[in-house]
Amino acid sequence: MTTFRRKLTPETVRRLTLSAEPWLSCDDCFAAVDEYVELLLANAPDDMPALRAHLSGCSACCEEARSLLLLVAADENVDPGPALRRLEEF
Ligand SMILES: [Zn+2]
After folding, report:
1. How far is the CA of 25 from the centre of ligand 1 (A)?
2. How is 12-67 classified by DSSP, letter by letter?
3. Residue 4's pLDDT is what?
4. Gap from CA of 67 to ligand 1 centroid (Å)
């Protein structure tokens, strides 16, 4: 019988939850990134944690998302600043 106990801090729980996210391939990310960019530009709540997790670990897709965000923002004539900051605040 083991009495070993690990204290779970909120930070540990967050990490465990993050690593349990469904794994996204770059193709999956590419397919959903336009939706994510729209979400950021609309200042909507971030309900795509798997995508965010992928972007935080994949500089290629993060760069792609940034370019798309700037493109869409220019197209819709909105200020990309706040959305860009949200994209980059990993
Ligand atoms: Zn990727």
Report:
1. 6
2. HHHHHHHHTSPP--HHHHHHHHHHHHHHHHTT-----HHHHHHHHH-HHHHHHHHH
3. 61
4. 14
